[in-house]
Design a protein that fits this description.
With 414 residues, the protein is α/β, with parallel strands linked by helices. It contains ten helices and 21 strands. The two termini are 27 Å apart. Bound molecules: flavin-adenine dinucleotide. Flavin-adenine dinucleotide binds next to helix 1, helix 2 and helix 9.
Length: 414
């Protein structure tokens, strides 16, 4: 019986454990993290990998790997127990989680942070293309494929470079545009003479928040990037270097010389078949308190939760503060007094060492931290994103020393 069991050992989990321990009300030995993977990834770094901001593949492996990948136990207090197994089921009535090897763990409080699955198999032809080192198809949504993306961008000699967006939910929905702009910049730097960049998306607009949609639309237009709304990638024929998109019930064939794929994303299998999720397969929690709607000792945050916000690490950091406050209020028998209003942020690289920082909350309402820097792409914020945040992630988050947009200052409800 653990006081806290945390299902999943990714970004949300590391932040949660850091904040729980900072309250000094719980010993590390009272927490169990269940995570099958040996390595923990800083996923926002994968855009920089693919886009060449960290150099070539060999530069990355020699100089930057420590920023991108850590042993899972390094992202937690050394006395927190990590169970290197997969969660295989939930028994919320009996406060139990099942894990691989037919074992189970009992909890007082369960925090579910299982992320979201990328489903490359859902696009026929994609796995064959992306696994083939000679096929110019890559994706920043997996580390090995991001390394391949880096290589195919550098080797691109001209022609059609195609980038797609998947249907929502997509973690970091701005990432497909980031890699597109970084690729465009590399083509120019590498002296590629004849190239055309196009962006295909199932959504009707390029970004869900009108202010940023206008800025991003203008940036794309200024570079001659074609933007194709309501086009959904359905299949690929790698031999013909052709991608197919569904548009108004017709199939459109597009030839490519380079293709970046954002894969469809879906809740992890173990959640989809469990009792703790909504109809879409995400953990069914209150959108303000982050407490489960039916089981009060179950909580969730991050990409696997039903929160109707944009799925990002920045959102997760904000949620972790609300959750830790509310969980201790519940333990103390007090009302849950902290509310999450959907804060999320998406820093979009747009080339020329600049970045557009998009910050918003539920219903796409603006929620900006630096309004004077957010009306156009900023070099200062680019530097912060490239150099500062990966190090904050590595050193501060696991220690509970990072309060999201409050930086290192504890919010007053805490
Ligand atoms: C290319 C890319 C760029 C991004 N850029 C940004 C950005 O610039 N800014 C930003 O804020 N966010 C960004 N994100 C999004 C951010 O990385 C995620 O939103 C964040 O990692 C979510 O944290 P999480 O803990 O919910 O999920 P994850 O960090 O994915 O962790 C989920 C964990 O659950 C584990 N797990 C899965 N199934 C099981 C199981 N059955 N049993 C036990 N464990 C399991 C996984 O192994 C994983 O460790 C980006 C993501 C990508 C892919």
């Amino acid at each position: 019986m653990y006081k806290f069991v945390i299902a999943g050992g990714g970004s949300a989990s590391s932040a949660m454990v850091g904040h729980i321990l900072r309250t000094r009300r719980i010993l590390p030995s009272e927490i169990l993290v269940i995570e099958p993977c040996r390595y923990h990834h800083y996923q926002p770094g994968w855009t920089m990998v693919g886009g060449g901001l960290l150099g070539s593949e060999s530069d990355i492996m020699k100089k930057s790997l420590f920023l991108l990948q850590q042993n899972t136990e390094n992202m937690f207090h050394p006395k927190v127990e990590i169970l290197q197994k997969e969660v295989t089921g939930f028994d919320p009535e009996n406060n139990k989680v099942f894990v691989s090897g037919n074992e189970s763990v009992t909890y007082e409080n369960l925090i579910v942070t299982l992320g979201i699955d990328t489903d490359y198999k859902a696009i026929p032809g994609l796995v064959q293309a992306i696994e083939d080192p000679n096929s110019p198809v890559g994706s920043i949504y997996k580390f090995p494929y991001a390394l391949k993306m880096n290589k195919i961008i550098q080797e691109f000699k001209g022609g059609n470079a195609i980038f797609n967006m998947a249907p929502q939910p997509v973690k970091c929905a701005g990432a497909p545009q980031k890699i597109m702009h970084l690729a465009y910049e590399s083509f120019q730097k590498n002296g590629v003479e004849k190239f055309k960049v196009d962006y295909y998306m199932p959504q009707p607009v390029i970004f869900g928040v009108p202010k940023y949609a206008n800025i991003l639309k203008n940036i794309a237009a200024s570079k001659g990037i074609g933007v194709f709304p309501e086009h959904q990638l359905t299949r690929i024929e790698p031999e013909k270097r052709t991608a197919y998109f569904k548009h108004s019930n017709t199939e459109i064939a597009v030839k490519y010389d380079l293709l970046h794929v954002t894969p469809p994303q879906r809740p992890v299998d173990v959640l989809r078949k469990s009792k703790i999720v909504d109809a879409a397969g995400f953990v069914d929690i209150d959108k303000y308190t982050l407490q489960h709607k039916k089981y009060p000792n179950i909580w969730s945050l991050g990409d696997c939760s039903s929160l109707p916000n944009s799925k990002t690490m920045a959102a997760t950091m904000s949620q972790s503060l609300i959750l830790v406050n509310n969980i201790f209020k519940m333990i103390d028998g007090k009302p849950l007094n902290a509310k999450y209003y959907g804060y999320s942020s998406c820093p979009i690289f747009v080339g020329d060492n600049k970045l557009l920082l998009c910050e918003f909350k539920y219903d796409g309402v603006l929620d900006e931290s630096f309004p004077h820097l957010q009306n156009s792409p900023s070099r200062l914020l680019f530097l912060a994103k490239k150099y500062f945040f990966p190090r904050v992630y590595l050193h501060l988050i696991k220690r509970g020393w990072w309060y999201g947009r409050n930086l290192i200052f504890r919010p007053n409800f805490f």
